[in-house]
Amino acid sequence: MKKFFKLLMIALLLSCLAACGGGSNEPAQEEETVGGGDLVIYSPNSDPLIEVAYTFGEKYGINVEVVSAGTGECLERISAEKDNPQGDILYGGMNYANSFNPDYVPLFEPYVAAGDDKLPEAYQNFNGITTHYCLDGSAALLVNIKKYEELGLNIDEFDSYADLLAPELKGKIAMGDPANSSSAWAELTNMLLVMGDEPYDEKAWEWVGEFINNLDGVQLSSSSAIYKGTYEGEYVVGVSYEDPCVSLLVDGGGDKVRLVYPSEGAVWLPAGVAIIKNAPNMDNAKLFLDWLISDEGQNEVAKTTARPVNPAIANTAKEMTPFSAINVVYEDMELCGTNKKAWQTRWTDMFTAAQ
Question: Which of 157, 166, 191, 319 is the most exposed, having the fewest neighbouring CB atoms within 10 Å of its CB?
Answer without folding.
Answer: 157
